[in-house]
Design brief:
Keywords: Hydrolase
Protein name: UPF0173 metal-dependent hydrolase C449_02430
Family: Belongs to the UPF0173 family.
Distance between the termini: 5 Å
GO molecular function, one term: hydrolase activity
Helix content: 10-25%
Radius of gyration: 16 Å
Pfam family, one: Lactamase_B_3
Strand order of the largest sheet: 6-5-4-3-2-1-16
Number of strands: 16
CATH topology: Metallo-beta-lactamase, Chain A
Number of domains: 1
Number of helices: 5
């Protein structure tokens, strides 16, 4: 499984011969790429409807869009997506070589169309190369989406979905910040931890080295990787 971070919450994930792009938003300072520079993914996963997560979904209409049911309907009606799959919290979808499990995120999900529309529950995704189950023998990547610290990380995601790598927002203000994200890293007990959703706009200023230090201070085994812009990691 190869993970590539394109800044903010945008990740390109390759599982076998299947490619998945999560939360396409390329108007951020941690990428030099435009949507047209990205090899068309087989699937685009959207965690929620905020503009910094769905901004460029309409650039990938040749991909299958996977999102909470209300967001899937929105990108179909407003962004021209023709192939959409709506799913909901707790569900697992087989996406060719990948399995996508949707989990809740503690956040909001709305879009401004003259007035504010609420578009269902925000989510995170666990992308794995095997169907999640009690054996937990596959490789899995947890994209937490926009979220605060929540006990499901410790009580559900870590013991049952067993991610090997996790991407956590650290920017504060709209999501958890560095301190709470370090607790999330401890609770999730993954081998690899990646900060995301930081330094995109003034309210999200954060030093990822402080996150590295906060995780180290907890004495956990997981290693924090601060990826360079458009940087990749082989899992």
């Amino acid at each position: 499984m190869e993970l590539t971070w394109h800044g903010h919450s945008t990740w390109y994930v390759e599982v076998g011969d299947t490619s998945l792009l999560i939360d396409p938003f390329f108007d951020n300072p941690h990428t030099s790429m435009e949507p047209t520079d990205i090899e068309t993914p087989d699937y685009v996963l959207l965690t929620h409807a905020h503009s910094d997560h769905v901004a460029h979904a309409g650039e990938f209409t040749d991909s299958t869009i996977v999102a909470p049911v209300e967001v899937a309907a929105y990108v179909e009606s407003e962004m021209g997506a023709e192939d959409t799959i709506g799913m909901n919290i707790g569900g697992t979808l087989e996406c060719d070589d990948a399995y996508v499990t949707m989990h809740r995120a503690d956040h909001t999900s709305g879009v401004d169309l003259d007035y504010e529309y609420e578009l269902g529950n925000p989510a995170g995704f666990v992308v794995s190369d095997e169907q999640p189950g009690p054996d937990g023998t596959g490789t899995a990547f947890y994209h937490a989406g926009d979220t605060g610290l929540m006990s499901e990380m410790k009580d559900v995601i870590a013991p049952y979905l067993q991610p090997d790598a996790v991407a956590l927002p650290i920017g504060d203000h709209y999501t958890m910040g560095i301190w709470q994200a370090s607790i999330a890293a401890e609770w999730l007990d993954a081998d690899h931890v990646f900060p995301m959703h930081y330094d995109t706009m003034p309210p999200l200023e954060a030093d990822p080295q402080e996150f590295v230090d906060a995780v180290d201070d907890r004495g956990i085994d997981g290693e924090v990787h601060v990826l360079d812009d458009d940087g990749s990691f082989e899992l």
